[in-house]
Design brief:
This protein is an alpha/beta fold and about 500 residues long. It contains 17 helices and 13 strands. About 40% of the residues are buried. The structure holds pyridoxal-5'-phosphate.
Length: about 500
């Protein structure tokens, strides 16, 4: 037995938190660290090498360009080349084989957004004097989103209750900014030097990223049997260093809406911030509620909710690259803003992480929002939720599968008798791109307008039924990605998995 097997066997029997600590300490010893890294390379290197071909499918078909061409290429040739790649990629998402990713995707809508982009392609909100149009669009995106999410906005109120915010580049940036905001407010107003945030284990990875980037300790709260944050554990995890509590509406893994009203009250009573991550749900839940679906209050109508992230580039149907982060009160938003008064480059300020930003994306986002309007969002949500109902019914009718929790449209399913990752493998073979998740092992499909097209939901259920039948019939087959998912889910030494992810990202940047 080599050192890694010993380590893994021993760690596998430990509580995961203790195992993680043991690994962290062990890897501080250079000999053990080198040994584990070398053995991991031997064991998992070939798997990664095998993945390289699937990550880089164009290598074999087209010339790679690793340095600037000596002479510039012809524009026509470049555009033809790009069209060729686009055509290779488009049909998969267009035909509804992909979970999430493209949320609208109708040709007419895409052409309209592209035109809005091209009209504004030079715009940069950093230069508000040159492009006042960009800041008009952004102010209105924030106001429309705030209003939709239960807020009283700048248009009809001022003061601490007023909902305000900024446009960001995506859900992750919205979350990072909100967490930085709470950290800085707590430092200034409460003198908190060791900030903590309390998040459900299912909260998006962006919160962990915020912890790593901004030196905020993350305290994770378990979920209950319906995949929702445990309210009592959340309250218990709050300490005098807690700067914010987090809930998802809904969560990325299981589409579960955390008990937002209860968490909001807990946060309000403790006098801490409460961020609702509605990146996925912000542009669906208000309409789902109007359509009569069971949606608990999750937005600024709850007095304890102090910030919300809502992604325009998901169910807001904007092009990729925009999201909105909202705050209760401009005082709170001030902690997000960057400003410097003494730089030789002049007075400088920027509301979000980037300096220069693509005003054209904000213009296209504004165009998407005003072209859809309330009736457009309502209709789209209705189609998505109806399709999701059909898919949930179909999954529930497949013996061997069970749906996790009680999701509305982001549906995770698991199995107590089959290797769910092999089901995923089979679906991949049929052209599907679903999300493999772990803890617990499951797969999800996030339903979009692509799945609401005629015949797509029925095809999904048909394919899923054959996948389950195949896995039942061939219990000892290994599968392609199933062992990788299995390894990633169960390997006790998480630092090895983390190292492998470094290597995977290195591969992404290889020409
Ligand atoms: C609930 C939730 N929060 C945050 C994010 C992060 O969004 P983005 O990928 O736009 O950064 C996602 C992405 O799927 C999400 O589902």
């Amino acid at each position: 037995m080599d050192i890694m097997e010993i380590v893994d066997e021993k760690l596998g029997k430990m509580n995961p938190a203790i195992a993680a600590l043991v690994v962290k300490l062990a890897r501080k010893i250079p000999y053990i660290d080198r040994k584990i890294a070398a053995l991991a390379e031997k064991e998992y290197g070939p798997i990664l090498d095998g993945l390289e071909d699937s990550v880089k499918p164009y290598r074999k078909r087209f010339r790679s360009i690793g340095a600037l061409p000596v002479n510039g290429m012809k524009r026509r040739d470049i555009l033809d080349f790009m069209k060729k790649l686009k055509n290779l990629e488009e049909s998969r998402w267009k035909k509804g084989f992909v979970s999430g990713a493209v949320y609208h995707g109708d040709r007419g809508h895409i052409d309209f957004l592209n035109e809005a982009y091209s009209i504004n392609s030079q715009s940069n909100p950093l230069h508000s004097d040159i492009w006042p149009s960009a800041i008009k669009y952004e102010a209105e995106i924030v106001s429309m989103t705030g209003k939709m999410l239960g807020g009283v906005t700048a248009a009809d109120s001022s003061g601490p209750g007023k909902i305000c915010g900024t446009v960001t580049s995506g859900g992750t940036e919205s979350i990072l900014l909100a967490m930085k905001t709470y950290r800085d407010r707590a430092r200034k107003e409460k003198g908190i030097r060791r900030p903590e945030i309390v998040i459900p284990v299912t909260a998006h990875a962006a919160f962990d990223k915020a912890g790593q980037y901004f030196n905020i300790k993350i305290k994770r709260v378990p979920i209950d049997s319906s995949c929702r944050a445990d309210i009592r554990e959340a309250a218990k995890a709050i300490s005098s260093n807690t700067v914010a509590l987090v809930g998802s509406a809904p969560s990325f893994p299981h589409g579960a809406i955390d008990p937002i009203p209860e968490l909001s009250e807990t946060a309000r009573k403790k006098g801490i911030g409460f961020h609702v991550d509605a990146c996925l749900g912000g542009f669906i839940l208000p309409w789902a509620e109007r359509l009569g679906y069971d949606v608990p209050p999750f937005d600024f109508r709850l007095p304890g909710v102090t910030s919300i992230s809502a992604d325009t580039h998901k169910y807001g149907y904007a092009a990729k690259g925009t999201s909105v982060v909202l705050y209760r009160g401009e005082e709170l938003r001030h902690y997000q803003f960057y400003k410097t008064t003494d730089w030789p480059g002049g007075l400088y300020f920027s509301p979000t992480f980037a300096g220069s930003r693509p005003g054209a994306l904000s213009a296209a986002c504004w165009a998407a929002m005003v072209s859809l309007g309330e009736d457009g969002y309502l209709k789209a949500a209705g189609r998505i939720l109806k399709t999701a109902d059909q898919i949930k019914k179909g999954i529930a009718g497949i013996p061997g599968l069970r749906i996790l929790g009680n999701p509305l449209w982001n549906i995770a399913f698991a199995s107590d008798e089959l290797d769910i990752y092999r089901v995923l493998d089979f679906m991949t073979g049929l052209g599907w791109s679903l999300n493999g998740l772990h803890r617990p092992s499951c797969v999800h499909i996030c339903v979009t307008l692509r799945h609401a097209e005629p015949g797509v939901a029925a095809r999904f259920i048909r394919d899923l039924r054959s996948a389950v039948a195949h896995v039942k019939k061939h219990p000892s087959e290994r599968g392609d990605m199933a062992p990788v998912y299995g390894m990633a889910a169960t390997l006790p030494d998480r630092s090895i998995v983390s190292d492998l992810l470094d290597r995977y990202m290195d591969i992404l940047y290889r020409v």
